[in-house]
Amino acid sequence: MKTFILLLFAFVFTHAQIATEEDKQICKSKFDLAVSDSLSSKPIGDVITAIGKSFLGLNYEAFTLEKGEKETLVVHLTGLDCTTFLENCVVFSRCIKKGKTSFEDYTKELEFVRYRDGKMGEYPSRLHYFSDWIFTNTKKNIVEDVTKSFGGEPIKFKV
């Protein structure tokens, strides 16, 4: 029995997340939209656009991921900043294309996209900077960096 309790504690501790009932309802509404609009059969770009449009009118909110002293998987769909807006559009779209539309599916995909190596660890495991988010998620084949195809060139900084 002690072993079971310890394993249960370890599972809960390593999969800590913060989400309200309102966040769960918003998540469900995004997946309901996907079903009603047959989004799973559309190209990923169209799915991302539809999910992005579904957030129209939502307030900008900064520092939504800074909750508590320990790193937790924060689900905050009642207000987004630029990075969490893109992140959620990508996460919902990937779930929809995979046919995985439960809240648990959403949080697994969110963890995979938000954290280095796809796993939440301590604070440094989260991709805090957008440039790091793009670089890391390009390596995970989640996004494609098209900068060079539009003539972009690397800039070297002296630090």
CATH class: Mainly Alpha
Q: Please, how many domains?
A: 1
Spatially, the strands of the biggest sheet line up as 1-2
| Count of separate DSSP helical elements | 6
Per the CATH scheme, the topology name is Putative xylanase fold
Walkthrough of the structure:
By secondary structure, this protein is mainly α. It has a single domain, classed as Putative xylanase like domain (Putative xylanase fold). The protein is built from six helices and two strands. It has helices at 2-14, 21-36, 44-54, 82-98, 103-114, 130-139; strands at 17-18, 73-74. It has a two-stranded parallel sheet with strand order 1-2. Helix 3 (44-54) crosses helix 4 (82-98) and helix 4 (82-98) crosses helix 5. The chain is globular and about 50 Å long.
SSE arrangement:
Elements: H1 2-14, E1 17-18, H2 21-36, H3 44-54, E2 73-74, H4 82-98, H5 103-114, H6 130-139
Parallel strand pairs: 1-2
Distinctive features:
159 residues; mainly alpha; Putative xylanase fold; single chain
